[in-house]
């Protein structure tokens, strides 16, 4: 009997040791994100709170300015020094997956019963690759149409409805444009990739006419098709007429913010981060809307997310997963702390989180209701992201600049660049 008890105890201890996660002994993991390295703000609050409840896991923050972030992460990966947990912008996600940068976390999600239904669907899409999960969503939000309330009021124009059309949008733009030297103002302004920004802001203008960047399989370039070139040319014509601002003048989000606050542009596209920037200007009244629609084409508003995943080379996967859950899983403290800091809007549909994020004393008013309506099924459209996305952007932006400056037609530009895009798509598909 005694020997049997000893054997049983030995077996229990062995099994216990087998299921004790690797972080039972003190471990240190790295967490990479974009931000100001000298003022990481809420990220430090999240790390501090996590370490209180997980004393054997220490988290070292790796903060890198956004413009350098993804290249530096790739460099760290190439040198075998990838951070254990890393945030990835969805623009780069497919290219990172092509490099096998992130670990498949599907089994962890199922094991720990992470409530995926709580996330906005578009956020989950941007965290999946070939039907598997490689991260949890961060910063899921629309790219809003942002309206300057004062410019509408000064022009004697009523604010549009959420179901406004392309024709109504163009009429508003023309009514809000003035050619008066120093007092010149425009109905709409966007850089369309000028100054290194994303070119994706051109896509709603294309979607509204049934066009797209790629076909449904994302293997064929389709901006050279009539449905697409017609709308790109329409944008160029509105720029030439002085209804839209010259994209070459709007080389950064900061410039666009300044122009809108100073009543030079009535409407622009803006992310949740830009909304926070606009709120810093006292008494600047603005509203958020979906992108206009045209007939059956109502899904014209970009909704994008980012993801936070675990490095495929991490030697502390269990500890990294515990931190990732704390950071991004529904019901965990990370999302609550983000909302209190008003860093990004909620990635989960939780009224209590929206209460923390929204400030009823600041514009835009009713942000929770408006943002959820804009991000809903009727208006939202995810980006056709795929490997080679940033290389495609690098090839297309100079062509857009030629079109918008009147050097070449949209049809000629897209036809001319099509072979180059085809080569990128074929090469990056491997």
Automatic annotation (TrEMBL):
Keywords: Signal, Sugar transport, Transport
Organism superkingdom: Bacteria
Signal sequence coordinates: 1-24
PANTHER family (UniProt xref): ARABINOSE-BINDING PROTEIN-RELATED (PTHR43649), DIACETYLCHITOBIOSE BINDING PROTEIN DASA (PTHR43649:SF12)
Protein name according to UniProt: Multiple sugar transport system substrate-binding protein
Organism, scientific name: Hydrogenispora ethanolica
């Amino acid at each position: 009997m005694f020997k049997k008890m000893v054997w049983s105890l030995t077996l229990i201890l062995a099994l216990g040791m087998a299921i004790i996660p690797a972080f039972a002994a003190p471990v240190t993991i790295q967490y990479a994100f974009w931000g100001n390295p000298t003022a990481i703000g809420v990220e430090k609050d999240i790390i501090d709170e996590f370490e209180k409840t997980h004393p054997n896991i220490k988290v070292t923050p790796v903060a890198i300015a956004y413009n350098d972030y993804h290249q530096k992460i790739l460099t760290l990966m190439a040198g075998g020094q990838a951070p254990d947990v890393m945030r990835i912008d969805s623009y780069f996600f497919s290219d990172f997956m092509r490099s096998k940068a992130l670990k498949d976390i599907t089994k962890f999600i199922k094991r720990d019963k992470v409530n995926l239904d709580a996330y906005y669907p578009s956020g989950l899409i941007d965290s999946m690759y070939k039907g598997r999960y490689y991260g949890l969503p961060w910063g899921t939000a629309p790219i809003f149409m942002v309206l300057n309330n004062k410019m509408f009021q000064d022009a004697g124009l009523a604010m549009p409805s959420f179901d406004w059309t392309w024709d109504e949008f163009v009429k508003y733009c023309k009514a809000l444009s003035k050619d008066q030297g120093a007092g010149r103002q425009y109905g709409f302004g966007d850089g369309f990739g000028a100054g290194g920004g994303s070119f994706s802001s051109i896509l709603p203008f294309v979607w509204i006419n049934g066009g797209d960047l790629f076909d449904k399989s994302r293997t064929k370039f389709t901006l050279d098709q009539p449905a697409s070139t017609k709308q790109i040319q329409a944008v160029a014509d509105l720029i030439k007429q002085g209804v839209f601002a010259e994209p070459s003048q709007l080389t950064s989000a900061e410039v666009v913010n300044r122009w809108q606050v100073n009543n030079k542009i009535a409407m622009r596209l803006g992310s949740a981060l830009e909304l926070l920037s606009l709120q810093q200007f006292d008494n600047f009244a603005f509203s958020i809307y979906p992108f206009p629609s045209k007939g059956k084409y109502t899904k014209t508003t970009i909704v994008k997310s980012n993801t936070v995943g675990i490095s495929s080379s991490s030697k502390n996967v269990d500890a990294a997963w515990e931190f990732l859950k704390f950071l991004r899983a529904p019901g965990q403290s990370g999302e609550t702390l983000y909302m209190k800091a008003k860093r990004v809007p909620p990635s989960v549909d939780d009224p209590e989180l929206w209460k923390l994020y929204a400030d009823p004393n600041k514009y835009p008013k009713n942000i929770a209701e408006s943002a959820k309506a804009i991000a809903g099924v009727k208006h939202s459209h995810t980006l056709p992201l795929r490997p080679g996305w940033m290389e495609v952007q690098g090839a297309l932006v100079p062509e857009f600049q030629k079109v918008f400056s009147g050097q070449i037609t949209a049809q000629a530009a897209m036809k001319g660049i099509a072979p180059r895009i085809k080569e990128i798509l074929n090469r990056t598909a491997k």
